Amino acid sequence: MLRLGTLFLATLSLTAASTYCARAQQVTGELGSPSATTTIDGRYLPNPPASFDGEIGLDAKSSKSYWPPQIVPQKGAPNILLIMTDDAGYGVSGTFGGVIPTPAMDRVANTGLRFTQFHSTALCSPTRAALITGRNHHSVGFGVISEQATGFPGYDSIIGVDNATIGEILKQNGYATSWFGKNHNTPAFQYSTAGPFNQWPTGMGFDYFYGFMGGDTNQWEPYLFQNTTQIFPWVGKPDYNLITDEADNAIDHIKQLNAAAPDKPFFVYYVPGATHAPHHPSKEWIDKFKGKFDMGWNELREQIFANQKRLGVIPANTQLTAWPDSLPKWETLDADSKKLFARQAEVYAAYVAYSDYEIGRVIQAVDDLGKLDNTLIIYIEGDNGTSAEGSVLGTPNELITIEGMQMPVAEQMKFYDSWGSNQTYPHMSVAWSWAFDTPFKWTKQVASHFGGTRQGMAMSWPARIKDAGGIRSQFHHVIDIVPTILEATGIEAPAMVDGAAQKPIEGVSMAYSWDNAQAPSARKTQYFEMFGNRGIYNDGWYACTTPPAAPWLMGTTTMPDVVDGYTWELYNLTEDYSQNNDLAAKNPDKLKKMQELFLMEAAKYDVFPLDNSILERLLTPRPSATAGRKEFAYSGVMSGIPTSNAPNVVNRSYTITAEVSIPEGGGEGMLVTTGGRFGGYGFYLLKGKPVFLYNFVNMARFRWEGQDALSAGKHILVFDFKSDGPGFGKGGTGILKVDDKEVANEKIPHTIPALMPWDETFDVGVDTRTGVDETDYQVPFAFNGEIAKLTVNLQP
Questions:
Q1: Mean pLDDT for the stretch of residues 129-149
Q2: What start and end residues bound the annotated signal peptide (predicted)?
Q3: What CATH architecture applies to the domain 631-794?
Q4: What is the CA radius of gyration of the chain?
């Protein structure tokens, strides 16, 4: 009888069929059966389709079925739990000498290894892009955070199809992949429901995502997504906190995976928002640290330094770098300042400990399933050094300091009792940040010095790493994590993914160090660059620029020429672990060679053009759905539009027009809003009266209000604002009109200089997040009438 299967195969590409067979590595079960599995070569993803090796006759009785084998990783391949916290320098965790207990990280270190020369890029989005791709941050378009993206290959925040993530590689090799917590690697102009979603986590190889998209979010009322859908799990739960919710969700997900497919290995990327501002731990954790920082930041440095030497996580000959003249010493402060600053540190420490506790629950869940022995855990404390973005004084609202402003201590004291609650969006003084980066100089944003880039990192895999509690001092970088995972899983880096040729992985595996503490560093060279500050490591030597301005000034100072206006320093790290002894004057020839090496590395990895602007880049036009638009029109109820896809009224004149119908009994509710409790505006009806309220970063509120309630029927409401600009944060004059009649006119001295709150949304007809004035209304404050048309007109 004619075998139709033979004819069918003849129509297939023989090349594809033979390629599939050549790539089949390890096969279990009988090929063609439903239980058969196979590993793949993996150099070309997705794996070419398997040939049909059954038989097809005229009917099922005369045919033989054949199932393609399920793709699995190699036998014994470990589960992967990749953990990274946020904004925490080398001296934060107790595991690396800090005064804040981190027992979950201790657990990883005590059953595995501590790495004492592991590095980030000095900023969050860039570090995260490098971490999940195994390539330098400029190579994958993340020379800065996405909100500062510019139209150059190294800075456009587009990872690109030629840079497949570790999630994509593991997924196509048979892993279940998931991502919990912070993203910040999707272009900020692609956060909306319009997508595209190819650079959302679910488009970058992760089967499941539960977290937030931007640099940070309110942990009490987060701007949260499940896959690509915004969700509100905090509504109606007064004790809700995202740090616990993320752990609950991850634990449930791991249990579900085990129940559904216990033999399928998982890759869990667990990256909570802690300890990036806002510092939002629960009260029970804050209470644990009451009085623990009354000794002040200078004594804290000494304690951390002594602990680090005792633990052996810094060499015995390490010197503690000098305290900077730009920051006050603790003993010079008045009583109120000491009280406020101690409170700031208590809340930060509570946030560190709280986050570590929840991470510990996730690790324990893996243990409870009997999977810990064959799980590779990588726990990185911080994606950069401790943040200096709270300014010298700290702040109850991060938006204030991000905009380049400060709040006096006396005003901040009003928030003392509520510090860390949902009534604050707090950050601590940079003096604490400097202390938490002990023994190094500088902080987050400074790529030239290890205060910005040196991270505590612990790694365990009980089935494979046997030197429990060991210390490794090889020089490594976040780009080395992907190749380490690939070596552990026996998976090759692909040459092609979805038809796109892949850039080479630029990291090197760290697995060589597992069995040999004395092995020389496999990484011989590594460049660093952020906002024009540069560094270059080569075989034990390190050259770097001197930061011309402190990062806590947020780019408000005049910067020197980025190419020729910087001073350089030189360090021999084999003798000077903490970058304490500058040898530039003594060894100019070596410095020159290092500078030349930086130029070569920078050219190789898309670092040029150098740019030391900060605030200016926040306002750079980007290819969003709003690019070039001056008029925006909406009708009915529309909520959840991210600020990047909404009309941006910052630093400009604008007119908002609402054509509404008021019901019998009077109008009430929100017409349009951007922002909320910590800054923004709302245009609404309150007891029938039109109100436009401008919340100046929770430091002042400016109000325009009509005297009369609107009658039932149709009305046209207008708010027209004429800016005193150009320039950052200029004031202006606002006029509120009802049916072309002026009902309120007020001039205000200033406006928000650069950014509306990034974790709020643009809403029409409702307010879905926090309110701009919670004495006036409570969310969702839905409008009880009809909005026929709402228009926002922007002027230059």
A1: 97
A2: 1-24
A3: Sandwich (2.60)
A4: 28
